[in-house]
Amino acid sequence: MQAAVPLPLSALDESFHPVLPSTVSDAAYRDDGLCVVGIFGKSNMQPGPLKESLINTLADKHIFSLFGGPQGGGTADSHIQAFYNQENRVLYLVLSSVCDSRQLLQACQSLSAGTGHSDSHDFWKGLDRQHCLHLLYMFSVCHVLLLVHPNQTFDVTYDRLFRALDALRQKVLPLIRAAIKDCPVSKEWKVNCRPCPPRLLFVFQMNGTLKVSANGSESGGNPDKPKKHSPRRRLQHALEDQIYRIFRKSRVLTNQSSNCLFTVPANQAFVYVIPTADEDPVGALLGQLRSNCILCDQDSTTSVSGPRRYQQMRRSARQSICSGDSGSMSMGAQLVDCSLKEFLWQHVELVLTKKGFDDSVGRNPQPSHFELPTYSKWVQVASRLHQVLISNTDEEIAELASKVQSQLKVLEGFLDADTKFSENRCQKALPLAHSAYQSNLPHNYTTTVHKNQLAQALRVYSQHARGVAFQRYALQLHEDCYKFWSNGHQLCEERSLTDQHCVHKFHLLPQPGEKPDMDRNPPILNHNSRGRSTSSCNCGRKQAPREDPFDIQAANYDFYQMLEEKCCGKLERIEFPVFQPSTPDPAPACNQAQRLPSEASGSGEAERLKEPSTAQSHTPGDTSLSLALSLGQSTDSLGPYADGDGTDTQVQQKRPSLVDRQPSTVEYLPGMMHSGCPKGLLPKFSSWSLVKLGPAKSYNCHTGLEQPGFLPGSSFLLPWDLVIRSRSEEDTGLTEPLDGGTSSWPAPNKTLVGKRGSTGGLGRSRRRDDMARAFVGFEYEDSRGRRFISSGPDKIVKVLGPGGAKDPATRVLNTDMPLYIPSPSQGRGLKPHYAQLARLFIVVPDAPLEVTLNPQVQPGPPPCPVFHPEQTDLVLPPDGLWVLRFPYSYATDRGTCYPPKENQPLNNYKVLRGILRATTANPPPQ
């Protein structure tokens, strides 16, 4: 007989002939009944594959290559190979899967080094599901199944595997019935979806660790006592008992064989142990050659084929082994161990003779159905089942195949023990993580608190959770914590202008004309941080409590407008220019974000920071300045009073045209005026206020400011002595500052005013009208309404007796004054309280002087812009007590400039020097 090559099972259909051992006509084998034997199992790292070598032994032919690569195309996927032995009418199906060493090696090579734990687990479980589908297929088309194992120990994981296959078979049974309903087989086959309940046989291979001595020393110290069974047969019996008890205990085997996935014979051996290979290979080859020669001599007399030939071979082999003794006993009084072919053929004969398997037990055993199909009928059924369960390439039954794939989740609980353990472990860790998240939580909290608690919950979860479900349940923990937070526990994320968050839960702001509504979800409320402070009005004569503001209009405009109705609404004031809309629906400017404050505060800010020596001359009573000057532009009207250095020259070169200087009536500035604002935009309201309390004589230097909230002795303004030059005197330096500072030096042979006398004394060589006294006071106010005047960056005015303040105002005018200083009345808490610069008091005397006001505030470290009013270089009219109210908060369109924290230096928050300048006014015409 000639050798043949096995084929993939998918090639066995009506249009393709299977591989035959000899050339036989198609009709000869297509009409014969055949027995289908399936072989599956595991293999270890041995020289040759165990399952393929079994086929070679059973067929007495070199069919499968023992040293070549696998026939499945070099992939790790499961596949079935078929070989039909027509002489014995047996069709062998060999399943190769990831349980084989070659397939396992290919699967490991296909995994990349960067594959994650979860992805690797999914890859292996996909191969396991594929293996299960191929096994279900073999249990549906085979009469006899051989489970091959590489050692003599039963693997108990097969119990879980068979229970999973049985559950899967019950689920897909209606789908298989629909697939084979048109096949030419019996009704019992169509109902049960298999030719008979297959009989499962076990083939174990004895490894080298189990040795059997020849002298029988294993008989308990009595070598002369004969043994009825050999050690290998006794091992087979012990394995049979063990396997049967395990399967009966787990109800894989029941009394009625027709309901089981497979059966085992009650009165026949179903376990075979392959003996260990002889250590003498030469002797083993000579023994095989001798036995083959004896068989060939006997075969030369008569030529018998089929089962009778197999019976003759079995008798000849038995006679050669027994060497003439009785047919059942050997020289050692032991029963002769049968070969693998004899072990298998006793079950195959029941199939070929159409007797079937009667494996039901119990009091009322029910006979199971049995059918011996012809090759043609079996191929039709096998092809349909292969399309439904494995290949899924037929469009006609694609729907059935997809339904089968959807039932594979039945396998997860049985086969994927790692995932089941991981899910149980992670599910137990979730309540612990939830408790860690909710521990010490307020009823409402911010995003920062949520993230911190979530990180703590993940740390607790990672201490207890294990396995492949770790990531999935970690995402569920994220979702659960977020749902808990967003379901009524989310705090409003808005922060006030003093950097305090709103205490309400997540809510919406009421629209214009809409009333707050707590019952809506989310509720409609105004922001509230529960922070209250005490502030004074524009003029400082009335104090009132105020809520912590959340927008710049409420902080710098609405509160003071409310107090104006009660206090300073009728006072004389200088209005700052604001936006005047020309359309009913103006819009905020949207190009603010295109310019960074650091970029916009380049040359223009440098120009404002530089203290000029001269100022523009205006009529004292004229309070309406030109539009260009109100926007902070340098114009040609400055004339000879403009500085002549290179900086102003560059600024004049970049001066915009008259069209660009016109304020927009369509777009307004969304925020406050500062050095980074684009030109031509005005805010909708002014954050500054300049009012006149009365004439200059309304301030008494002996009593100070008579307003509420001042600390004792700290309400006195600082004197500012100004020298008035006469036109008749031939003195130089008429345009020098008259503030008596260090920058003004006396001419030679001239006596400085006030040098010999007191601070306010007059020189003997001067007339009384050569000197004028103004008063200046930087007022600070803390959140509790405590007010005081500062005489320097780190000094508070303290007057204990009559006479007023003695310190001159030149110190505060020639230095950068801090915007925040520590309050002299600290509370009991550890957090320091800061007093903020709130007002600037200026007493302008009735003299030929021009006092120019140019406030510039930098409320933060660079690149914070410099804030200024909408009108700069403002000349104060004479004979008046003027009050400049600074903004309560500073903000741009990019955000708020928050007050300093505890660890931030206060010198970054300052009012730039040069806020006041005084020059001699032109005398009125005679």
Automatic annotation (TrEMBL):
Span list, region Disordered: 213-234, 511-545, 579-658, 731-766
One family name in Pfam for this protein: Smg8_Smg9
Biological process, per Gene Ontology: nuclear-transcribed mRNA catabolic process, nonsense-mediated decay
Keywords, alphabetical: Nonsense-mediated mRNA decay
Ranges annotated as biased composition (Polar residues): 526-538, 613-637
Keyword Phosphoprotein applies: no
Family that this chain belongs to: Belongs to the SMG8 family.
Function: Involved in nonsense-mediated decay (NMD) of mRNAs containing premature stop codons.
Protein name stated in the entry: Nonsense-mediated mRNA decay factor SMG8
Annotated source species: Seriola dumerili (Greater amberjack)
